[in-house]
Specification:
The complex is a heterodimer of chains A (117) and B (116). By secondary structure, chain A is mainly β. Chain A has no helices and 11 strands. In chain A, a hairpin with a 3-residue loop joins strand 4 (31-38) and strand 5. Helix content of chain B is 0%, strand content 51%. In chain B, 34% of the residues are buried. The chains are: A mainly beta (117), B mainly beta (116). At the A-B interface, strand 4, strand 5, strand 9 and strand 10 of A face strand 6, strand 10 and strand 11 of B.
Chain lengths: 117, 116
Amino acid sequence: DSGVTQTPKHLITATGQRVTLRCSPRSGDLSVYWYQQSLDQGLQFLIQYYNGEERAKGNILERFSAQQFPDLHSELNLSSLELGDSALYFCASSASGTGKTTNEKLFFGSGTQLSVL
Amino acid sequence: AQKVTQAQTEISVVEKEDVTLDCVYETRDTTYYLFWYKQPPSGELVFLIRRNSFDEQNEISGRYSWNFQKSTSSFNFTITASQVVDSAVYFCALSEDMDSSYKLIFGSGTRLLVRP
């Protein structure tokens, strides 16, 4: 068990809908990351938050948004869903999330499987 | 632009064989990090190793070893005496962003099947 909790584990919805994925980082970790794993795109980094603020952005669509709350949990909001958004969405956390911490590890949750029908 | 290539899509070996998973990366930065992650059938991603570009020492952890060669931009992963539990998809990844060490660029993964 990595200590990173993602809910729900599975989500089935229809095109055009909006969903929210939730992530609770490991106790004490300040950084949360979101990744998407799809058949087409493989594994790709979406976005990182550090202590409530956006730290880095990857290939995140404008229809997607995220935030990190004062209690450090994070939510990834996906709107106007398309068939191609079907993927496994991972959340991960690390203690600080900067490149200056040489021994810092990244811990992944078990993912939310999103199916858009 | 940065890129990670794992040319081996799938590898099948018999238990106790040694197996090497290849990873070739492209980057223009002189400072970067390289990673290996394991994704077992259960789906979660498990961290295996992180290596920074200044440290070219090879590393061994039990049956696992990593060979980092900057001259060929490769970071290969060897499993010695493979076991059925090693069956998984293995991802190599690169990070150039020093403000965010986990803005990772992943390879497409190598599926390893270890047969009894």
